[in-house]
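Protein: 2-hydroxychromene-2-carboxylate isomerase
Species: Catenuloplanes indicus
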Amino acid sequence: MARFYFSLRSPYSWLAYRDLLDRYPGLAEEIEWRPFWEPDDDNLKALDEAGGAFLYTPMSRAKHLYVLQDVRRLAVDRGLSMRWPVDRDPWWEVPHLAYLVADRQGRGRAFVDAAYRARWEHGRDICDPATVAGLGTEIGVDGAELARAARDPAVRAEGVTALLALHRDGVFGVPFFVRGRDRFWGVDRLPAFAAGAGAVGVPREPAHPAVRERATDEGHAGGCG
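Structure follows.
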């Protein structure tokens, strides 16, 4: 099955998510959604012991500053308003392992939508268990269960399995799409991935002037990835 690797941290992954749902809704229903995140030390060790490796390389400061400008431009092109979140001591297991729990209950997509909206439209800290608990309540699942996912040994083991999938598919960044032996990295590769799957995209609506005025990088480095 074709796969979409997404990260709740990454602004490019958020943009690809919006493009996928807005322009290729049928394809979004057909493909498998898999999370990508930077593992903490314990999960990184467990991944290594399982024979896997985390392939992502942190970006330079110059690239980070470029991303701030680039994402703003891409958001404006799509008519999206956004707020840059500020990540203070982030623990990415919190939202991504919560996704695994929500997905088991058939609410994975709903959690992704709520988390992306919280992070990129409202600038909220989705690594805060209290935020994740609220998102769970919002989508109709046990918020407390989602909030404790990062400390649940069984869920953490499931997370290592998800990290191994990243290693096997050679995922070094997001968004990342896989179809057979073909790999597509980046939001601009979504049309090629969709075309190979026979999906016809819905034309993008031009951005409204009011949205163009609201879009801003707010002058600081948020949580890019």
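Remarks: Confidence is low (pLDDT under 50) at residues 210-225.
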